[in-house]
């Protein structure tokens, strides 16, 4: 929400009610601004104003940033007719303006960032800012040294003209690696492993930029980002 804004828009946003219905309530004297009943819905509201609706104070919480440990079976969308979404896991007010900064597939677990700050999320997800996203990858077949080098050099994805950007790759075990990429192409990690004739069987994101998934969070749990995480992502 941008300020200053109209009273009807402010109330509608915070009580999650249609603006036409809110206007009717304003005319009936439900709204008070700085202690005075207001009957005009186009009154300008700033963040410092005290707004009451039916004698209950409405507070705009501003920009918010959440870290979620995503389980399998949830999609990174605001709504979905077929599957539960990551927003179903958040018990927070006014989530309609929020979005996922860096989506995960339905069968992928791990770190998801959710915010209503579009500029911040763009800096997180845009390839030009080169924020690496780090994944733990379990594969169907043993990982060869040749495949590791190919991933580091860049591979040709099906349907793409250019090679992927060089990845940071650490082999953890015969069937497990840690892979960091600075792009966000559709199903990229799975397609990269397919390009080296292997297959992903388990995928978990543990880090975006410098923001590491909190090990205290169980699957399905979330928390607000710290100020340090927000500023130094």
CATH topology of the largest domain: Alpha-Beta Plaits
Q: What is the CATH class name of the largest domain?
A: Alpha Beta
Give a count of the beta strands, DSSP E runs of length 2 or more.
15
Report the total helices. 6
The CATH homologous superfamily name of the largest domain equals Pseudouridine synthase I, catalytic domain, N-terminal subdomain
Radius of gyration: 23 Å
Number of domains: 3
Structural class: alpha+beta
- Percentage of residues assigned to helices: 10-25%
Taking the alpha carbons of the first and last residues, their distance comes to 23 Å
Averaging pLDDT over every residue, what do you get?
94
Biggest sheet descriptor: 9 strands, mixed
Instruction: Tell the overall outline.
Output: elongated
Order of helices and strands: EHHEEEEEEEEHEHEEHEEEH
Q: From the 3D coordinates, which CATH architecture of the largest domain would you assign?
A: 2-Layer Sandwich
Segments where pLDDT lies below 50 for 5+ residues? Answer: none
Percentage of residues in DSSP E strands: 25-35%
Report on this structure.
- It is a single chain.
- The chain is of the alpha+beta class.
- It has three domains: 54 residues, RNA-binding S4 domain (Structural Genomics Hypothetical 15.5 Kd Protein In mrcA-pckA Intergenic Region, Chain A); 90 residues, Alpha-Beta Plaits (2-Layer Sandwich); 77 residues, Alpha-L RNA-binding motif (Alpha-Beta Plaits).
- It is 21% helix and 27% strand.
- The chain has six helices and 15 strands.
- Strands 7, 8, 9, 10, 11, 12, 13, 14 and 15 form a nine-stranded mixed beta sheet that branches. It has a four-stranded antiparallel beta sheet with strand order 3-2-5-6, with helices on one face.
- A hairpin with a 2-residue loop joins β5 and β6.
- α1 crosses α2.
- It is elongated, with a radius of gyration of 23 Å.
- The model has no long low-confidence stretch (mean pLDDT 94).
């Amino acid at each position: 929400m941008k300020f200053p804004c109209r009273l009807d828009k402010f109330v509608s946003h915070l009580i999650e009610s249609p603006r036409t219905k809110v206007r009717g309530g304003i005319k009936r004297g439900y709204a008070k601004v700085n202690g005075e009943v207001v009957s005009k819905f186009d009154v300008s509201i700033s963040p410092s104003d005290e707004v009451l609706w039916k004698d209950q104070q409405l507070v705009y919480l501003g920009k918010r940033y959440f870290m979620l440990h995503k389980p399998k079976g949830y999609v990174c969308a605001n709504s979905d007719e077929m599957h539960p979404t990551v927003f179903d896991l958040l018990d927070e007010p006014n989530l309609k303006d929020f979005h996922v900064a860096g989506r995960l597939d339905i069968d992928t677990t791990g770190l998801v960032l959710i915010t209503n700050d579009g500029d911040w999320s763009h800096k997180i997800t845009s390839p030009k800012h080169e924020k690496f996203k780090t994944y733990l990858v379990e594969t169907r077949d043993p990982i060869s040294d040749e495949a590791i080098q190919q991933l580091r050099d860049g591979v040709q994805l099906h349907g793409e003209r250019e090679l992927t950007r060089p990845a940071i790759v650490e082999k953890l075990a015969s069937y497990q690696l840690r892979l960091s990429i600075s792009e966000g192409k559709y199903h990229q990690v799975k397609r990269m492993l397919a390009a080296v004739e292997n297959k992903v069987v388990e995928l978990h994101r543990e880090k975006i930029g410098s923001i590491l998934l909190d090990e205290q969070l169980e699957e399905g749990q979330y928390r607000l980002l710290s100020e340090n995480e927000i500023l130094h992502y």
